[in-house]
Amino acid sequence: GQQVMQIPQYQHVQEGEDFTTYCNSSTTLSNIQWYKQRPGGHPVFLIQLVKSGEVKKQKRLTFQFGEAKKNSSLHITATQTTDVGTYFCAGFYNAGNMLTFGGGTRLMVKP
Amino acid sequence: NAGVTQTPKFRVLKTGQSMTLLCAQDMNHEYMYWYRQDPGMGLRLIHYSVGEGTTAKGEVPDGYNVSRLKKQNFLLGLESAAPSQTSVYFCASSRHGGPPPYEQYFGPGTRLTVT
């Protein structure tokens, strides 16, 4: 079946360092969404990317969608302790009605 | 608006017992979903519904049943609980139609332990 692979699984950074998580799909995605889940919380929607090569920014967060629409990345500049949590990508394929979630990247920030 | 609510928040079951998890949303969303989340495995879709009276299997449907008798409610049933069903269960909903994005709104989760 269709799978979305996400790396790394864990990342420890010092506050102020940058952070990037990557998602890859073996088949072309219709669109990709990103979610953040704080420890003990539930996933919260961050953004959706639809177009090939699309780049969107939310303050210190930069989201990219690959030209082939098979990969995506989330980059956080100058991490803060409030960025702690697990970041999930979730891909939508044309053939289905459901999102396929990546395994998530757990970000830990040392103050 | 309460958004998406789930009942109960915590539950401990013995192997073989049954239970129903209730999800309710007040956003008039067409689509509703049940996921389970296990450490290191992300969110896996159990069942979903694209409208009242309709349900469909997701990635990991075995051992679960669902019903969507009312648009605002989506029930997840475990007929005979097994330790492998120990997990955190999330319900989500999303709209369909109109301008994107069609983001999913998640409930707070139900932590289920089967002993």
Short description:
The complex is a heterodimer of chains A (111) and B (115). Chain A is 0% helix and 55% strand. Chain A has 111 residues and is mainly beta.
N-to-C series of helices and strands of chain B = EEEEEEEEEEE
Approximately how much helix is present in the residues of chain A? under 10%
**Biggest sheet features of chain B:** 7 strands, mixed
Overall shape of chain B = globular
Helix and strand composition category of chain B: mainly beta
The helical percent of chain B reads: under 10%
Structural class determined from secondary elements of chain A: mainly beta
Distance between the termini of chain B: 36 Å
Main pleated sheet of chain A: 6 strands, mixed
Low-confidence stretches of chain A: none
Q: Write the H/E string of chain A, N to C.
A: EEEEEEEEEEE
* Chain-averaged pLDDT of chain A: 94
* Low confidence ranges of chain B: none
What is the strand content of chain B? over 45%
Greatest interface by residues involved? A-B, 24 and 26 residues
Describe this structure in words.
The complex is a heterodimer of chains A (111) and B (115). The model of chain A has no long low-confidence stretch (mean pLDDT 94). Chain A has no helices and eleven strands. The termini of chain A are far apart. Chain A is mainly beta and 111 residues long. In chain A, the strands form two sheets. In chain A, strands 2, 4, 5, 9, 10 and 11 form a six-stranded mixed beta sheet that branches. A five-stranded antiparallel beta sheet of chain A has the order 1-3-8-7-6, with no helix packed on it. In chain A, a hairpin with a 5-residue loop joins strand 7 (61-65) and strand 8 (71-76). Helix content of chain A is 0%, strand content 55%. Chain B has 115 residues and is mainly beta. In chain B, strands 2, 4, 5, 6, 9, 10 and 11 form a seven-stranded mixed beta sheet that branches. A four-stranded antiparallel beta sheet of chain B has the order 1-3-8-7, with no helix packed on it. In chain B, 0% of the residues lie in helices and 52% in strands. In chain B, 33% of the residues are buried. In chain B, strand 4 (31-37) and strand 5 form a beta hairpin. Chain B has strands at 4-7, 10-13, 19-25, 31-37, 43-51, 54-57, 64-67, 73-78, 87-94, 105-106, 110-114. Chain B contains no helices and eleven strands. At the A-B interface, strand 4, strand 5 and strand 10 of A face strand 4, strand 5 and strand 10 of B.
